[in-house]
Amino acid sequence: MSINTPDYEIAETVMVASPEQLRAIADPLRSTLLDLVLERAATVAELATAVGRPKSTVAHHVGVLVDAGMLRVVRTRRVRAIDERFYGRTGRTLVIGVTRRPREPGQPAPQDVPMCVNALSVAASESVPAHEADTLYSTLRHARIPAGEASRFWRRVEALVDEFSALPREGDTSYGLAVGLYPSEQPVLPPPSPPPPGGDTGT
After folding, report:
1. Distance of CA 40 to the CA centre of its chain
2. What whole-number distance in Å separates Cα of residue 132 and Cα of residue 187?
3. At the N or C end, where does the chain have fewer CB atoms within 10 A?
4. pTM of the predicted protein model
5. Tens digit of pLDDT for each residue in 50-91?
């Protein structure tokens, strides 16, 4: 039983913040390629076989990820006078950073703003076949809680996601796990009204 540890050296994190990087990981196929090489380094041919796409298509997307600093050649192998390149991730975890938004009219200066791919939108599209086959596990809840409590809860969720990512790579099915915590426009109740004079609280 092999734990999810790639067969190459990899940094724990890599920062993703530039528009080019964000565009690179926004593509579902490129996101899949990044997930595949988290298991082990792979050649373009192996990746093309895994995703069922032409080698030329996969080679293009691999090149985009290399240029964006999220994939790199981790080793080569000589096969019939040709060097096969094995690609791996530059970081186990992609940390979405901040980017400088251009100054807008009426604003005093440019602002650093968080930029990220909406993973829930990707998961919503990806999970349609599972929903139709009745094999989708999902739930949605709303809770009115302080911002600090939301941050603490999210750290616990991240630990669970790390545990999921470290599970042994076995079986024939790749499962997706999508989680999100966000401020919503779900209505909230107003503060309770004070009791009427005389202490009559009703029945």
Report:
1. 18
2. 30
3. C
4. 0.60
5. 999 999 999 999 999 999 999 999 999 887 878 899 999 999
119-144, pLDDT tens digit by residue?
777 778 788 889 899 999 999 888 88
Mode of pairing for the β-strands spanning 11-16 and 91-96: parallel
- The C-alpha atoms of residue 89 and residue 192 are separated, in whole angstroms, by 53
Name the segment(s) of the chain with CATH classification 1.10.10.10: 1-99
Which residues lie closer than 8 Å to 143 by C-beta, 6 or more apart?
Answer: none
DSSP state of 84: E
β-bridge partners, 98: 114
Alpha-carbon gap, residue 170 to 104, rounded angstroms: 50
Can you tell me the distance from the alpha carbon of 174 to that of 26, in angstroms, rounded to the nearest whole number?
Answer: 20
Rounded Cα distance, 23 and 27, in Å: 7
Architecture of domain 1-99: Orthogonal Bundle (1.10)
